[in-house]
């Protein structure tokens, strides 16, 4: 098993958590343990794990709530651990986004089999190509409103990002100031029409001057164009 595969055990019963840790590490996994629900949620978001074994009954925040919140931000595999054997509880966990569940008492072999099945399935799934736009060493990620230049994240405002995205999406076409104004600021914009020039200067300062990346060109009497 790849030693980098890390399992997060969220369980407030010390004996069960230790039992799982010993068997998982014997099988070649790395592990981490957390007994507090609220802290577990924070660690799942802040730290990097490959799969979570999540108990339902936890102090401060229960497993169902953790699963619900995590699914709003991440698709990390989650296996619920529960002493409850009612169908409605299993259904609730799966509906919240859990990948599987194990009912206590369980054997180490059962947990390992479920972990391996889920990780194998994840590894076999085709990776979704992230939507991105590229010009030179500038990469835009529209889905997360992020820009990187030479691997470094550049902080742009919402309007700065939309302006850059519009220019890059239309390269190598020349865009007039009116086209840019209507697309980025909207047809009913009542502000100063020089706003396009002002925001172009912001982009040049944050990207071109700082990283020595010249891509935005002025076409005199017309507007602007992006070139590689």
Q: Secondary-structure blueprint of this entry?
A:
Blueprint: E1 6-10, H1 14-26, E2 30-34, H2 37-46, E3 51-55, H3 63-71, E4 78-82, H4 87-95, E5 100-103, H5 108-124, E6 133-135, E7 138-141, E8 146-149, E9 152-154, H6 158-169, E10 175-176, H7 177-185, H8 195-211, E11 216-219, E12 223-226
Parallel strand pairs: 1-2, 1-3, 3-4, 4-5
Antiparallel strand pairs: 6-7, 7-8, 8-9, 10-12, 11-12
Helix pairs in contact: 2-3, 6-7, 6-8
Commentary on this structure:
This protein has eight helices and twelve strands. A five-stranded parallel sheet has the order 2-1-3-4-5, sandwiched between helices. The chain has a four-stranded antiparallel sheet with strand order 6-7-8-9, covered by helices on one side. A three-stranded antiparallel sheet has the order 10-12-11. The longest helix has 17 residues. The protein starts with 5 loop residues before the first strand and ends with a strand. The chain is elongated, with a radius of gyration of 25 Å. The mean pLDDT is 89. β7 and β8 form a beta hairpin. α2 runs parallel beside α3 and α6 packs across α7. With 228 residues, it is an alpha/beta fold.
